[in-house]
């Protein structure tokens, strides 16, 4: 079974430029997460989708960050304009959440996109 | 804030058991203990989870104290490839509860 796919793996941009990250979750997973990870720290949740609906975006800086999950499968996270402090690894994860299903809600992570803003 | 506390770093000799502790004194009755690890330049990888009974899978064993206020992840025969940051997380299974990662324990397996 294919895991969570993210692209690009690395991105270097100048400040004030836009950037977008793409995530393809594990097939059949209804929940998708975007995390931000700064160097030496654990991942921090930015936004969580249940199918195509954003159910928790309280940690997403909405002035410059946006995300979408059209058709409830792939997702895109965008930053416009990027700032120096946005340099980090952006992780995507997916899970199958639902009552009565064994082993649900384990989150599976992609390899991440390392963003460097110059 | 994370609901767990872990030592920032640990060393383990290759081939020996690695025992990684985690304190979760405020754990609720319906919260599970999850362990993930993150190898350098990769995303976090699920290892194991449990509620109150000890659990074992092909990767590790999870020992949870009777009062559930702490747990230990055991890698029975550590290899160099087990060098990673290990995260202990408590959360309600099968829910949309936010997963909060702490800084984790950086395990170094030494030849």
Plain-language structure description:
Chain A contains no helices and 11 strands. In chain A, strands 2, 4, 5, 6, 9, 10 and 11 form a 7-stranded mixed sheet that branches. In chain A, about 0% of the residues lie in helices and about 45% in strands. With about 110 residues, chain B is mainly β. Chain B has strands at about 10-15, 20-25, 30-40, 45-50, 55, 60-65, 70-75, 85-90, 105-110. In chain B, strands 1-9-8-3-4 form a 5-stranded mixed sheet, with no helix packed on it. A 4-stranded antiparallel sheet of chain B has the order 2-7-6-5, with no helix packed on it. Chain B is globular. The interface of A and B includes residues 43, 99, 104 and 111 of A.
Can you give me a brief rundown of this structure?
Chain A is mainly beta.
Which terms would index this structure?
heterodimer, A: 118 residues, mainly beta, seven-stranded mixed β-sheet, four-stranded antiparallel β-sheet, globular, B: 111 residues, five-stranded mixed β-sheet, 9 strands, 0% helix
What letter string, H or E per element, gives the SSE order of chain B? EEEEEEEEE
Helix content of chain A: under 10%
What is Rg of chain A?
Answer: 14 Å
Strand content of chain B: over 45%
**β-sheet strand percentage of chain A:** over 45%
How would a textbook summarize the main sheet of chain B? 5 strands, mixed
Count of helical stretches of chain B = 0
- How many angstroms separate the termini of chain A? 37 Å
User: Largest interface here, residues on each chain?
Assistant: A-B, 28 and 21 residues
Based on DSSP secondary structure assignment, what is the total number of beta strands of chain A? 11
For this structure, the quaternary state is: heterodimer
Mean pLDDT of chain A: 90
């Amino acid at each position: 079974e294919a895991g969570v796919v993210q692209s690009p793996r690395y991105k270097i941009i100048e400040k004030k430029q836009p950037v977008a990250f793409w995530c393809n979750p594990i097939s059949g997973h209804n929940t998708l997460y975007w995390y931000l990870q700064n160097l030496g720290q654990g991942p921090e949740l930015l936004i969580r989708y249940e199918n195509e609906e954003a159910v928790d975006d309280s940690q997403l800086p909405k002035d410059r960050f946006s995300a979408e999950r059209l058709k409830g499968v792939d997702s895109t996270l965008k930053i416009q304009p990027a700032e120096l402090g946005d340099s980090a690894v952006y992780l995507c994860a997916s899970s199958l959440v639902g009552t009565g299903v064994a082993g649900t809600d384990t989150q599976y992570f992609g390899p991440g996109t390392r963003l460097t803003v110059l | 804030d994370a609901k767990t506390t872990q030592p920032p770093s640990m060393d383990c000799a290759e081939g020996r058991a690695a025992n990684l502790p985690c304190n979760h004194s405020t754990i609720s009755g319906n919260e599970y203990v999850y362990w993930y690890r993150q190898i350098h330049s990769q995303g976090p990888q699920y290892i194991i989870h449990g509620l109150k009974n000890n659990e074992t899978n092909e990767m590790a064993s999870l020992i949870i104290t009777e009062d559930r206020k702490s747990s230990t992840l055991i890698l029975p025969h550590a290899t160099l490839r087990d060098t990673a940051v290990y995260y202990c997380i408590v959360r309600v299974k099968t829910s949309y509860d936010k997963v909060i990662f702490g800084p984790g324990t950086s395990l170094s397996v030494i030849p």
